Amino acid sequence: MPNLEHPAYPAATLLHLESLVPCRESQVSMLLSIFGERQQFTFPSIFIYGHTSSGKTYVMQTLLNTLELPHVFVNCVEYFTSRLLLEEILIQLQSCCSETEQTSHVPCDTFNDFVRLFKQAVVSRELQDQTLYIVLDRAEQLREMEANILPAFLRLQELTDRNVTVVLLSEIVWELFRPNIGCFEPFTLYFPDYSIGHLQKILSQNHPPEYSADFYAAYINILLGVFYMVCRDLKELQHLAVLNFSKYCEPVVRGEANERDTRKLWKNIEPHLKKAMQTVYLREISSSQWERLQHDNGEPGQLKGLSAHTHVELPYYSKFLLIAAYLASYNPVRTDKRFFLKHHGKIRKTNFMKKHEKTSNHLLGPKPFPLDRLLAILYSIVDNRVAPTANIFSQITSLVTLQLLSMVGHNDQLDGPRYKCTVSLDFIRAIARYEHGSTSVKTERTQTANEYR
Predict the structure, then answer these.
(1) For residues 113-143, b (16+ Cβ closer than 10 Å) or e, as one string?
(2) SS3 of 394, please?
(3) CA of 56: how far to CAs of 19, 31, 74, 245, in Å?
(4) Rounded to the nearest 10 degrees, how much is the dihedral formed by the CA atoms of 211, 216, 219, 221?
(5) Fewer CB within 10 Å of terminal CB in the chain, N or C?
(6) Rounded distance between C-alpha atoms, residue 434 and residue 421, angstroms
């Protein structure tokens, strides 16, 4: 029995719509009940929000196109000023009912001009007998425009006296939109994130025809088991599924395993999925480069991408501040004397490591450290004298802004700010290799602290 039912639309159309929007049947059903029949007035404005890749844009486009409802779809990032936005709405409105007529550019400087031109366009295109939908994607950009734009769009039905509904799609909640002076409250609808079961169902629909659905579903199950904790973006997971499927099929193609031999298939794909974990979201190499890298059994670091060159853009002392922050985050305080002083005296080796310190600090994560310890390590690893000037402190602030360091606690703490280093060991090694001469030798010596751990 179909989940979508509406007396105004044929059952076959609704069944086709349901197949196009899996795992979003409840949201589509809600929208259908809000829209009503074509000629009926609906809510003046609807606010749809949810995280990235929760299906907001896709569901709205599919719903309006499948039901053949007159609509205008505009991305507010692409049309970033009020004039560009209003003119684009009018241009699409001219062409939404007549594809043969050539659209003409009409200048629109103010919202009053837009209301006047909008009324003329609706009358000339014979849209008075059905609801027109204006969908504004990435609607959070409206907050950067003139103060009257958002309240006017929310009351467009009242201002034009026409059957029009404005749909706002955003990734932030309505409370961050609401102006201080107040405005017309839209109907809000939330799109929750896809669960792991939803992602399994959606991704499994794209299985290649030469393989069975169960075989591809098992592959998607393995993929989600690896990536679900770090990536729940549907688009990124679709990209990863297409990129690594050929490697998963290799034992079957060579005749070394069948489609049900899950253990052999997993052992073959596991190292390649671990490599892919290092470049999730980055897109620092193309798909063809990644496939060639897998074929040659190489490492992702062999191809110079974004992450390999990020440190080049850092100022000179910022690099050493980042190295010092990493050493302070992953080494106990009592080892500073051992690693950073030339004449530290004798240190007893018996019971040097406490019981809980036998675990690698990379598994325990970075520890917070005070500012004075960061500067002390910085003075130790840089050969020339570094004065604690405003330039050094501003670079620390810049590293926090770039999210290479994170501040722990609040600025008003009496004992001073505390920080954590958020970059990986590979990133620090890349910075250390980039510096030449005696400085790099000294930095490599301090890195033995982590390798000792």
Answers:
(1) bbbebbeebbeebebeeebbbbbbbbbbbbe
(2) helix
(3) 16, 12, 14, 28
(4) -160
(5) N
(6) 19
As a dihedral over the C-alpha atoms of residue 210, residue 216, residue 217, residue 222, rounded to 10 degrees, the angle is 170
Contacts of 399 (CB under 8 A, 6+ apart): 318, 321, 322, 325, 405
Q: CA 170 to CA 141: how far, in whole Å?
A: 9
* pLDDT of 97 higher than 60: no
| pTM (2 d.p.) | 0.68
**Residue 163: in which H helix or E strand, if any?**
none
Q: How many residues does the chain have?
A: 453
Which residue type does 385 have?
R
Nearest-angstrom CA–CA distance, 121 and 91: 10
Q: What is the pLDDT of residues 343-394, one digit of tens each?
A: 655 655 545 455 555 556 666 788 899 988 888 888 888 877 777 788 888 8
Of 2, 43, 37, the residue nearest 19 (C-alpha): 2
| Helical ranges in 128-188 per DSSP H | 149-154, 156-160
Mean pLDDT of the 397-417 span: 78
